[in-house]
From TrEMBL:
It holds the Pfam family Aldo_ket_red. This is Putative aldo/keto reductase. One of its GO terms (cellular component) is cytoplasm. Keywords: Oxidoreductase. Residues 15-321 form the NADP-dependent oxidoreductase domain. GO terms for molecular function: oxidoreductase activity. InterPro entries: AKR, Aldo-Keto_reductase, NAD(P)_OxRdtase_dom_sf, NADP_OxRdtase_dom. It comes from Gordonia malaquae NBRC 108250.
Amino acid sequence: MHTTVLGDSLQTSALGFGGMALTHVYGGTDDDAALGVLNSAVDAGVTFIDTADVYGQPQPGVDGPSGANERLVARLLADRRDDVTLATKFGITGKVPLAGQESAKPTRGDAAYVREALEKSLTRLDTDVIDLWYLHRRDPDVPIEETVAAMAEAVAAGKVRHLGLSEVTAAELRAAQAVHPIAAVQSEWSLWSRDVEANVIPACVESGVGFVPYSPLGRGFLTGTLTRDQVASDMRGSTARFGDDNWDANQRALAVVADVARRLDATNAQVALAWLYESGRRAGLPTVPIPGTRSPSRIAENAAAVDLVLDDDAMTALDDVSSLIHGTRNIVADPAWISSGRE
């Protein structure tokens, strides 16, 4: 597996692994099987492991993020900490405001919460240091400079090595970068989600910040392996792009990916990931996608994308995919939940 250097001299494997795939979001999970998948990823050289304090089934009686996925990753780290570049996130509280409960904040970024979240993540992960610590979503009630200053305290204390931001705008990135070096921005970027190209990616290039695309395979849609029944049983079925009308309409975009894959003797997933690598190279942007999976065989398939070369005809065809997509990428009703809703 090749390596990539993101911002702030953070070196990672060229492909990462998104831990959210091993949670209830995509259906039931088995922790032992999930641990096997994580070990398979590291065995394949996919050593950049991404998790978050909010990933995992909420626990009865637990106030805030359950940390279930972090505890799973801790089982991997127990034997392989030196093999792993560990990324985790904080800032999403796991609380959804309901009618009459307006005080339930979905995000927090105040300094006290930053410090509390760090200690809880370190405990759940059973580690002394986090390699890359992201602000998962910014708190609109707290200046991002205040949040990042509190995160920087963790770097000074030796508990965190590098800082990252998720779903930030270009202006938010610049404000944060003025406080402390930012190694990476994590946001959705793929053949069917390209809004970050307007402002966020140019700001990353300008600031020397790497980019970590989440959902690089369109939550599995771009692989061409999903069925309507599969997505109906998990969170994807309630989102705009996977709805009945849009599911059918978006098959036209999927056909373009499949055509390129057949011509290059590759899989849809490999083509979608290779497009991200080539798009990053053309922009001058270090790019490390973090697809998730529950199948060890998919890890090997995805890893092969690092060496797949897309010719100009392939790039031209793939660049048009986003124009065929029906439905927004946002998975919640609040437009400000994603960066383009705040630009």
